[in-house]
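Suppose a classmate hands you a notebook page containing two proteins, each written out with its sequence and a corresponding row of structure tokens. How would you begin to make sense of it? This section walks through that situation. The first entry is reproduced here exactly as it would appear on such a page.
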Amino acid sequence: MQHDHINSDNNLNSKLQYHDENEHLENENHVHEHHEHERDESHRLDIKALPAASVVGKPVYRVKIYSSNETIFCVPENEIVLSVHDQVVATTRYGKDLGLIQCGPVACQNASEMDVYPIHRKATENDLQKIQMHREKEGTAFKTCRQKILEHGLEMKLVATHYLLEEPKILFFFTAENRVDFRELVKDLVSIFKMRIELRQIGVRDEARVLGGIGICGRSFCCHAVTDKLNPVSIKMAKEQNISLNSLKISGPCGRLLCCLGYEYDFYHCEKSSLPEEGRKFVIDKEEYYITEVNVIMNVITMKSVNGRFLNLPTASFHRDENGHWEVNSEPIGENSKTV
């Protein structure tokens, strides 16, 4: 019996990055596989997608994988008729598994820019029964693995367990702050389950995506129910939308910035680019003011004088002169104004 130790720069969501004001974090996978049989030198951690040239022009479907709650793009192996909400058996980067068609088909034109996997068939009643049996076993496997983690004193948090549909392999997803030497853990798990064991380290955002939950808005986590693409989110996005920078209000249960901060950022950024920025000074009716807030939803710009007086003006009051300098026309206060 041999052991195969593999490190990979891939993570649960390839190209996953997280940005905030002062940091750039990129998750890294540490994977250890133990084979009961002879080591396969051709083994690769992630199953490769189809060659780009082989899928150009073919109908592409977006499929949501139940186990990891991520979406992949797939093409049918043969001319089977598929519809939205059909359950299918497809190859994923973990192996053959069950998924749900979310949309499609569309003709694939840019296969070189995305990974595309094959759909083998529609899920049968036998497949669904097998998945149900696997789910029952996954609970037991989770408890067993968690107990072994405690016995070995490993600093890792088990997140989820999954039996692949058509392979004698169990996936264990976990989080950890540092690299973990879990070789002895893998030996124990192999001796108990008599199957291939694969441990995958994921990030805290991936954990939220896999497990799901209810956000502060009262709805399901965006990463779980809306999109599985964990796009970069920055503190700048909150500032641009005049959102309080209280960390409790702009952070999700995962401890990272809320995914939804990026949804309307482009709108705010575009609208504010045509208006004077916060901090710009104006003299209105012989009194100096500076902009404290630009509210693009209410179309109101709030200004404060050096004497502490506040003034709300419509955004239409501000315009650029022929030289590109900002001017403000505030008739209720005075017609004469100039930029400082």
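The notebook's second entry, a different protein, reads as follows.
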Amino acid sequence: MKKGRKRITLELLVLLPGLVDVVIRALNPDNATSPEGLKLEVNKVDENHLSMVVEAEDIGTVINTMNDVFACLQPLLKLLSKGGIS
């Protein structure tokens, strides 16, 4: 990490089998179009965990990006709450 940049790392526990891969696929299109200076990594740790790293020049961008990530996950969570993925 370059000096002065801000970073947040979040590890998520995923309780449903196979859902880690679904979450990674859901977030990767956004990752492909990240603005210059913004780094978003989503990686599979194991079958039940994934890690997300957001890095940017300022903390506001990091926080806004994490909010965007959670907004992208909302449709998936709604689908899961209705039993949509097995």
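A careful reader of the second entry would note: Residues 23 and 73 are 8 Å apart (CA to CA).
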